[in-house]
Specification:
The structure holds 2 protein chains of 2 kinds.
Chain A: H1 33-45, H2 47-69, H3 80-85, H4 91-100, H5 104-122, H6 126-131, H7 136-169, E1 175-176, E2 182-183, H8 185-216, H9 220-238, H10 268-295
Antiparallel strand pairs in A: 1-2
Helix pairs in contact in A: 1-7, 2-4, 2-5, 2-7, 4-7, 5-7, 5-8, 5-9, 7-8, 8-9, 8-10
Chain B: H1 2-29, H2 41-49, E1 55-64, H3 72-76, H4 84-92, E2 94-103, E3 107-114, E4 117-124, E5 127-132, E6 137-141, H5 150-163, H6 167-176, E7 182-192, E8 195-204, E9 211-219, E10 225-232, E11 240-248, E12 266-270, H7 281-295, E13 297-299, E14 306-309, H8 313-322, H9 328-336, E15 338-340, E16 343-347, E17 352-356, E18 361-364, H10 368-376
Parallel strand pairs in B: 6-12
Antiparallel strand pairs in B: 1-2, 1-11, 2-3, 3-4, 4-5, 5-6, 7-8, 8-9, 9-10, 10-11, 13-14, 14-18, 15-16, 16-17, 17-18
Helix pairs in contact in B: 8-9
GO molecular function, one term (chain A): ABC-type transporter activity
Keywords (chain A): Membrane, Transmembrane, Transmembrane helix
Biased composition (Polar residues) (chain A): 1-17
Chain lengths: 300, 377
Amino acid sequence: MSDSPVSDSTLSASTAPGETASVRARPPRGLGLALLASELAILFRRTRTIAMLAALAAVPILIAVAVRVSSSGSSGRGPAFIDQITQNGLFVGVAGLILCIPLFLPLTVGVAAGDTIAGEASHGTLRYLLVAPAGRVRLLIVKFLGTVAFCIAAPLVVVLAGTVIGAILFPLGNVTLLSGDTVSISESLGRALLMSAYVSVSLIGLSAIGLFISTLTDTPVGAMAATIVISVAAQVVGSLDQLAWLHPWLFSYHWLGVVDMLRQPILWSSFGDNAILQLGYVIVFGALAYSRFVTKSILS
Amino acid sequence: MADRSLRRWLPAIVAPIVVIGGALAVPLTAGAAGVPPEKSAQEVLELVGSNEVTALSGTVVQTSELGLPDLSGALSGTGTGGDSASSALELLTGSHTARVYLDEAQGARVQILDSMAERDIIAGPDGVWFYDSSEDTATHLALPDDPTGSAGTDGSQSDATDTVPTPAALAEHFLDAIEPSTAVSVDNTSVVAGRSAYDLVLTPDSADTLIAAVTIAVDSETGLPLSVAVTAKGQSAAAFSVAFSDISFDTPDASLFSFTPPAGATVDEQLPHAYSLSTSANGEHDSHLGDLAKNVTVTGDAWASIVELPVGDLAAGASEESADPSGSASSLLDAATEKVDGGRVLSTSLLNVLLTDDGRILAGSVPVALLQAAAAD
């Protein structure tokens, strides 16, 4: 286990030397579970990760406070979810999640995924990780699983923060679904968790792309920026009617399908289609990352 | 060394091919299993007639390529107020997905799945509900009081189930119109919603109609029409199609057919017999349509028939609409129609509508010239 993850006091740049996992005390053996545990511990103790999760949590909190302060004008501007917040605090988490999908969540995932390999390379720690009997394939898998863990944590933080602040500032009640049916508070909490899971799955394709880009370069900032740009570009392409034939192939195609979890009955096929699409991206970019990483000459 | 490097790049080359190939091939090979026995057109027609499906749930995808101008900009302005004309036009452009639940014993429910929103029509034991999530409005159409109770309920429910826009309902409409002027053939078998189906092709003999062919895919087991595609002359792709993308014949859950409007929603109660008394815009609109139905004249043969609405009623309705402050209805009309001799014409690949200068409306799946000739008669 990581006895001493290096203290990381700097939030800002990824370039500060010694910020990340410099030296893992004992190279782990066995199935790589120890390596994974150490990776997760370093990832979630890193100041940058905590700051990103805190920023995500701030989104629903800002929404809730803004709506609470200016509760006068509830005319039908913006998504219907925001109008419903004043009647039911449980919508805060959902509204926050939907607002975060196009930009904030891909942004944080881009940072987490872009840093995976390039971050170690830029700190000169990649060499030591590979000297240990970890092996390149296993390191790649562990890095990917670490990003997946971040994909799970990020939307969950938004939903939980939103639900808590909504419960504090607004009355709670039964939730009206898009179909007009009403479900109990407990079921609506289950639906919110399901939406969080949907968004986690949605982000996995992007994190595979980020992992691949991260193997291409030794500059983590470049890999992060490229991943984020790709996520924005995919959504721009997705909004152009002239490229409609391409839309089903974009990893962002099903992103807003998260609202299908708010229909009665739940549109499970949407969840399944999304999962298959993301799996395709994981296979393609996982293979690309593998080929690139095992052929890469590690100089740092 | 080069060999080894090449071998390591192999996954990066193979994976995209496998994934893209798989994504393209799976829909094509999904129905490779089980080709149904060959049937003649007559046998397939009998199969449709013997269809006894009483309950189903499925997803219906409707697409239109009618060549209408893009009205989304003009329509967005008319979204409020449940303007039936604009919502009908909206359904004629682009594609829509709806979930359909049918149970003859209980009722029907249609959910039009919009992005970030949903429109529901629920026909159940307590009447017909219409719910729009983007407006958070619910409209309730109560059942007429009927001393015979259950009989009345059954009647209205089957009415409601008939109006559900399933491929079956549309197919019935076309099959009713079969007559000597239509050639019926079974093209081949196809796979719709994962089920093998016979493709019944109706080809009008008439040279006057815009319809080239109507293709109905009939489920080989139950005889239920699974998809209907209407092809216009001069087009290879279907101009209008309604098809199940998945279907199950299990009885849907009974809770789907009962509806309680959510707290906070605007609820509008309407009585079916009270249209003429209703002062709401919708009520007036419907009463217009009711009067119109008596005055409609139909001329021409089945496929090339022309429907004519007389002077007055609708023109009055239209002028009322154009008097509405935004003026959106008239601008919509101007955007969608073009000027021809004797009036304005709304031209699509399947249907032409002529609005004559004296206020009559002629519509039919025929060329504009025939509409003009009919108007001159």
